[in-house]
# Entry
Amino acid sequence: MLKRPTKRTTLISLAVVLAIFIGSLSWSIGSVLAAPGTDSVAARLAEWGRDHGLGFVVTAGENLQYWLNPPKIGGKPTGTELQDLNGQTVSPSPLPTANPTSSPTPTPTPLVPIHDPLQPIVSPALNGEGTFKTVVKVNEQPVIQIAYLRPDGQHTSYLSGVAWMSGSQLTFVQHPGFSDPGHLNLWTQPSIIPVAQRASLVATFNGGFKIKNSRGGFYADGNTAGTLVKGAASLVIYADGHSDILSWSGKKPDPDIVSIRQNLALLIDNGQVTPNLDKNVLANWGWTLKNEYFVWRTGIGITASGDFVFVAGNALSIQSLANLLLRAGSVRAMELDINPEWISYMWYTPGVTATSPIPHKLLDFARPADRYFQPTSRDFFAVYAK
# Structure
């Protein structure tokens, strides 16, 4: 006959269960905090919460923070981006060539503007607003140019950055993150830019939402994380070195496709912004932070000539992001990641050696400029000279 447990035995059992729970929780959070990379403590805890059913708590906290600190209305930009474009050298080191020398030359190569200026959105325009300057050259040909302009008539103290990238002179490489998509054994590329690949590196930029929130998949090396979704906006890299942005056909990837990164739906198609972007924004354009708000956002588009434009900025709505991508010449475009912890765009100039290029931020976002020289938790793209 079983004895009825005593009150003392019950309390001991509860204490043991509680201790196991706390220990497991501590181990789980501790492993996240101890992971490599440059993710902040806040970002690591937020990602842990979302992965453990606490996404609603994280989102509520982000919304509260936004409500307490909304983007500024009016005013003028206080950064140095436009000052740099109005006569100063944008990058402090010489512009890279296809075969960088082991040491930089004393005098920077003159910056050569070739891209037509972008028509500013806000009038009157600031001096230099919308004007492109070359920051990277390959074989004396400009391959990356940057410009800055204000995103709308309200948030006039913020500058959005636009980076033009030559589709004929550059090639993209898709890298996985060690947490997302994870499963690094499935992919040829690592979650870091290896030293051996840095000599011809000219730029890097962030990928899309976490795979489970992207309404699409991550494909490389014949393997897929998530699911490739028909109609999803897709950045596709081909074996011959060219890339494209398109709405996925739904068919199995052809052998000439190296990688695919899907994220939501196209913002721009056939040179037209998707209608009604401000309708059902939360459901259609992401759950991380209420997307009807003006927050840090990134997106990438392809032009009619096959070049690429990357847009990043604070105080952007989904509509203003699409407007900027269209103004920069996109015929097809997609949103990438949002929120200050996850966005980045860097271009690179020669360092002391060919394999130690110097990164330069497009804007003053939260992540360090050398983010991708260390293992990173999220997927990203590297851009190389062909």
Observations:
- Residues 81-385 form one domain.
- Residues 6 and 41 are 44 Å apart (CA to CA).
- Residues 12-21, 88-113, 287-291 have pLDDT under 50 and may be disordered.
- DSSP finds six helices and 18 strands in the chain.
